[in-house]
Amino acid sequence: MHILLVEDDPTVAQSLQLGLPRYGYAVDWVPTGSAALTASAPDMVLLDLGLPDMDGLDVCRELRSRSDVPLIVISGRGSETEKVVGLELGADDYLVKPFLVRELVARMRAVQRRHLGGSGTGPNPRETYGRVTVDQRAHRVFLDGAEVPLRPKEYALLVFLTGRLEALVTREAIMTAVWDSNWFGPTKTLDTHVAALRHKFDDALFIECVRGVGFRLVLRAPQPTSPAHPAQR
């Protein structure tokens, strides 16, 4: 998931550029409002209000007029008036600095869930990855049109990895996202769940293990079907 971070403070920006990838997010940082308005369309926007070239509220208003991209204000302005104005202009949430990265991630996930559960707005809750279809609204997964029964953590792991297709994700990031942010035990359970997914989806999905780092989910191109030989008489 690609995040557009609009923040003029390099210290805050660098902290988030280091912290958010641990949770599976890729961060593009721009320091001005004008750069935010010309950036490529992201999956989510984290927007500071105290920008050097224009007020962040104007950026919020303009971004919301263009799309319904999930948007969270992160600002040192903590008055009730500022929060109300930001939310009325279309922000999905408002987080006052200073904050913990873990708290921000929790807010981001909550906003994602609301957008996925919306009626036609936000990301499509039903996505197809080759022969596999994931329906996040119904919490169901299909292989070649047939439903594949998954345990809750198997489903959560699959959704997490498909959302980061082709990206190498560390064991720590997976355990934090799928199990618990306070998980400090061995990650053997992760290997067990990866093995289960490999078994259930066979060659439709390939979960590559990068030893000592983590896992990468890739799609395998379907093998061409060999033409049938005519039956011998």
Tell me which CATH architecture of the largest domain applies here. Answer: 3-Layer(aba) Sandwich
Instruction: Count all strands and give the number.
Output: 12
Largest beta sheet: strand ordering: 2-1-3-4-5
Largest sheet: 5 strands, parallel
The named CATH superfamily of the largest domain: Response regulator
Keywords:
disordered C terminus; 5-stranded parallel sheet; alpha/beta; 2 domains; Rossmann fold; 8 helices; 37% helix; Arc Repressor Mutant, subunit A; 4-stranded antiparallel sheet; 233 residues
Describe the structure.
This protein is of the alpha/beta class and 233 residues long. The protein has two domains: 2-116, 3-Layer(aba) Sandwich (Rossmann fold); 126-219, Arc Repressor Mutant, subunit A, CATH 1.10.10. 37% of the residues lie in helices and 22% in strands. The chain is built from eight helices and twelve strands. The protein has helices spanning 10-19, 33-38, 56-66, 80-88, 101-116, 152-162, 171-179, 188-201, and strands spanning 2-6, 26-30, 44-47, 71-75, 93-96, 126-129, 132-135, 140-143, 146-147, 168-170, 205-210, 214-219. Strands 2-1-3-4-5 form a five-stranded parallel beta sheet, with helices on both faces. β6 and β7 (132-135) form a beta hairpin. The longest helix is centred in the middle third of the chain and has 16 residues, at 101-116. The protein is elongated, with a radius of gyration of 21 Å. The N and C termini lie far apart (57 Å). Residues 118-123 and 222-233 have low confidence and may be disordered.
